[in-house]
Amino acid sequence: MHALVLACAAQAVYIVAFVLFKTAVGRMAPLSGRHPLRTGTELVAGASWLAAVFLLIGGFAISAAALVTLPVAAALPAYGLSLMLLLVVGMSGFGERPTSREWLAVVVTVAAMVTAALSVLPGAGESLADALHRTGGEDAAGALPLWKAGLVFVPSLAVPIWMFSVRDRPVAGRHARPVTGIAYGVGAGVLLGATEAFGLGTAMLLADGAGVGVLATPHPYLFLLAGVLGLGLVSIGLQRCRLTIIVTVVTVTAKTHLLLSATLLFGEPWPGDVAPFGLRVAGVLLAVLALLAFPRHERRAASVPDVVPDELRGRPGPGVPQSPPPAGWPVRPAPHVRPAGIRHDGQWAAPYDHRVSG
User: Fold this and answer.
1) 352 domain residue, yes or no
2) Whose CA is closest to 86, among 118, 119, 120, 109?
3) Cβ(256)–Cβ(116) under 8 Å?
4) Overall domain count for the chain
């Protein structure tokens, strides 16, 4: 039960950290993965962003402390509950309004986590405490072969590299539809999922008394590398897209990745009986379905009526914004950044930085 409380606390810390990230990047010049050095300099120069980083690291530590003895699947309902808190914060603090399809995707996400968690329920002759307590994994973490670490890390790195080189392009054109941030969320999610997996391996070894010997394993180094890249990508996504979409996609991607990675790296137990095993597989499939259910583009602006009075023709109308301004929580923009606004056609005008050409 103590581990479940820690898992819930970790998710609350995650939400607060992502809110700080959203607020911090809203004050910055436009970030781009195609200019990693400039983006990295911009990020580390922000005190609020660094505070969010330390807070997120604290969340990783709390989560790892819980998962040392708690099966990963058993902690998934805590992640689902955190999404409810996320929606409240996004709607009340950032003015975000999810569409009906996005609500459906969130419901499928929660259903996926609950379904996977049901596979941990005790079987015949087993108590709930026994089902929620996992032992072992330290030996596998200490003797982790590099090829197994590569099977987790390399695919996690390939997705954001593809994002940086192919998909990280500004949306332009009068009829362009802004993206909701699914690609950013998936890219950051696989990296942060790998971060949690290698962080869990580090925590297991420390709990087993490895001490400084943990530095002889790949866990802490892959934890740092995946974490740095994941934080960079999620910061770019939060600046350009809505908080609720980015964090929901990051969560479902990261936790699914963590569940599968822990199975490969540390022998995370999967149920042997047919029914629990089916629930675990169904949970993973529902998580994939949730990602597919999220719309890829924002809603179009309301169409202009065919008949417009002459005295109103040419004047800007109210329009329907495609998504909330990228700045997030009401903040004062930096002097070199023009605040986002609504054009006459209902689209959000992108922030402009006179220091960035092209």
Assistant:
1) no
2) 109
3) no
4) 1
The predicted pLDDT at position 331 comes to 43
If 0-12 CB within 10 Å is exposed, 13-18 middle and 19+ buried, where does residue 186 land?
Answer: buried
Q: Which DSSP string do the residues of 125-151 spell out, in sequence order?
A: T--HHHHT-----HHHHHT--HHHHHH
Task: Give me 348's structure tokens.
Answer: 């959000």
Q: What are phi and psi of 284, to 5 degrees?
A: -65, -45
Residue 85 forms part of a structural domain: yes
- Structural domain of 152: 2-123+136-293
As a whole number of angstroms, the distance between CA 214 and CA 147 comes to 18
Instruction: Judge whether 59 lies within some domain.
Output: yes
Integer CA distances (angstroms), 42 to 2, 103, 181, 229, 241, in order: 39, 34, 21, 15, 18
Domain presence at residue 227:
yes
Q: What is the pLDDT of residue 153?
A: 92
Give the pLDDT means over successive 10-residue stretches in the chain (358 positions).
82 91 91 84 92 93 88 84 85 87 90 90 69 74 87 87 59 61 88 93 88 89 93 91 90 92 87 87 93 81 46 46 44 47 46 45
